[in-house]
Amino acid sequence: QICESGIGYCDSVNVISSKILIKGGTVVNADRQEVADVYVDDGVIVDVRPNIKVADGVRVVDATGKFVMPGGIDPHTHLAMEFMGTETIDNFFSGQAAALAGGTTMHIDFVIPVKGSLSKGYEAYVEKAKLSCMDYGFHMAITKWDDTVAKEMEIMVKEKGINSFKFFMAYKGSLMISDELLLEGLKKCKSLGALAMVHAENGDAVFEGQKRMIELGITGPEGHALSRPPVLEGEATARAIRLAAFVNAPLYIVHVMSIDAMEEIARAQKAGQNVIGEPVVSGLVLDDSVLWDPDFVTAAKFVMSPPIRALGHGKALQAALSTGILKLVGTDHCTFNSTQKSFGIDDFRKIPNGVNGLEERMHLVWDTMVESGQLSATDFVRVTSTECAKLFNIYPRKGAIRAGSDADIIIFNPNSTFHISANSHHSKSDTNVYDGRSGKGKVEVTIAGGKIVWENEELNVVPGSGKYISMPPFNYLYHGIDKADENYLTSLKAPVNRFNPSI
Ligand SMILES: NC(=O)NCCC(=O)O
Ligand SMILES: [Zn+2]
Known about the structure:
- The protein is of the alpha/beta class.
- It has helices at 12-16, 94-101, 118-128, 147-159, 179-192, 203-215, 222-227, 230-247, 259-270, 281-285, 296-300, 313-323, 338-341, 361-370, 377-391, 481-491, and strands at 19-28, 33-41, 44-49, 59-62, 67-70, 72-77, 82-83, 86-87, 104-111, 135-141, 164-168, 195-199, 251-253, 275-277, 409-419, 438-448, 451-455, 458-459.
- It has a domain at 71-400: Alpha-Beta Barrel (TIM Barrel).
- 32% of the residues lie in helices and 20% in strands.
- The longest helix has 18 residues, at 230-247.
- The protein binds N-(aminocarbonyl)-beta-alanine and zinc ion (ZN).
- Zinc ion binds at residues 199, 254-255.
- N-(aminocarbonyl)-beta-alanine binds at residues 78, 199, 304-305, 332, 334, 353-354.
């Protein structure tokens, strides 16, 4: 529960003491795990080793038999996003409160430009984010192209701490960009050391597919899946990858939902290209049968893009996550309540696209991937936290339990059980796409910025307490890119000096 003022009810020791000792747990980082204590003071991890002794007055939390891990970092969220004629029901407070209850302590949200203006979009999101109760960063979408946009991209990277730009290849007539724009964007990203991200679906073909379904009289949520099949995701993924190869720029594919897209990524990686694939929880654990549910509200809550795919795709994505083809898990948390989803009661094209996941991601990834033996605990930390911190250049400040890192920590009990319910979740939505699910493992304590914000099933969160995390350019994918450019120029064997007999 969150009290009305937003200030929680935890005991005074929690609120006042900035010193916490987490005793006797198994500390899990992406590269190793060990039994150790973790000492936190003033928002920072000060020491990690066995048998730390502390003075009286320090809050001691017993983690014996439990895992002590970096808080989750969600690379893909849409809070307070204006989209498809409405605004997501979770803002920067409710979405982040939900995240903290589920063990995620930082997220990166997508700034949407205002009429193409990056600076206006940035200002709007700075306002929205004033409600924050945990740390956050920004990616930024690019929706049009001109010299001003190019200049503003530079300002965003050099002055505003944004190091990634997203290009929507779908949503014709609103967010969709052309190949020409994507090429300009890739070149600009490369020159700034920023990471280009794509929503990969062929928007023109989706538009055609939607018309086809309406003409066939298929107007319900199942029409959403039928109108944008995996082949359109595979095509756009392949196109984006090839254009990135042509420019020699790193590329990040958001919400990989199909075997078709995943196989394109695997092929490019095998050829040595720097392509990152991000599955989202819905794509890993759900299948599209839900879109055929006879109850509109039930079916509509699963409408997102690219669509949740037929049985088999999720399993293949899980396997690709376990073998490293797919690198980190996001949520694409973009929630609309059942009233908003009902805008499309007569026409699936009007159902606002998006599902929840911020509160559920850590539990579902553990249960699906670790309990099934597909990932180890260290892998779990890598795909839910560390890889994101590395890609967006904030490691080891984030994504690690080590001296000097921010004190964003979870205590996870692998022997407990989680239950998901729309009645008890912390999102403002009245529905939850994982409603009724249970599984093994439970985030019992979340510490964000050195404060215990989730304990005994209670949230203790304050709007305005979250910090903006500035993210510098030139992440590890840029290492060696200049050599590759040099090799490319050499390989041209040009220009050729030709003898001109007229001179
Ligand atoms: N994914 C989705 O359905 N909604 C959010 C916008 C986007 O990421 O495409
Ligand atoms: Zn998208």
